[in-house]
Write a structure and sequence with these properties.
Length: 159
């Protein structure tokens, strides 16, 4: 299976459930145009540590499926509140790794561990269910357009 981007979600404010879009404009070192963290309106926009890793969040579709299968919790991709949903790639393996989604170069910065805020906004007990599979925080290294269906490739194998 070729790793792919299967969904993109944007939310204009911390309290608004993200909505699915077919494509998004990625801005280097800033975020996705139209998303709460791009405009500084995210729950953790002013949190520390500052620096890379607040620009973009990703989660595996396989993680969402496992949460339901193992814990009986049906968490939609929108409820997970991550920007990008991937398929066919282990995101935990991308910490410290540069990779492409389509023509956008990203760098995995750190795990996107679940937090109590996610429990509060969803009303679901997610800390244990998403432990070690909450996703990835990434830095955006160049401007570009992300589109649903884009292939994901490590820089060593990217064309």
């Amino acid at each position: 299976m070729v790793p792919r981007l299967i969904a993109i979600y944007l939310s204009p404010a911390a309290t608004v459930l993200p909505t699915s879009v077919a494509e998004a404009e990625a801005k280097a070192h800033t975020g996705l145009v139209g998303d709460r963290y791009f405009t500084g309106n995210g729950t953790f926009s002013n949190a520390t540590p500052k620096g890379p890793g607040r620009e973009l969040t990703l989660i595996e579709s396989e993680a969402l499926q496992a949460v339901e299968a193992e814990h009986g919790i049906r968490l939609s991709a929108a409820q997970a509140r991550r920007n990008l949903v991937t398929e066919g790639i282990r995101l935990n393996d991308l910490v410290g790794v540069k990779f492409f989604i389509g023509g956008v170069l990203l760098e995995g910065i750190r795990f996107c561990d679940p937090c109590t805020h996610l429990n509060v906004v969803t009303g679901m007990p997610l800390l244990k269910a998403l432990a070690n599979r909450g996703g990835l925080r990434a830095a955006i290294l160049n401007d570009g357009i992300l589109q649903v269906g884009d292939e994901i490739a490590l820089t060593a194998t990217a064309a």
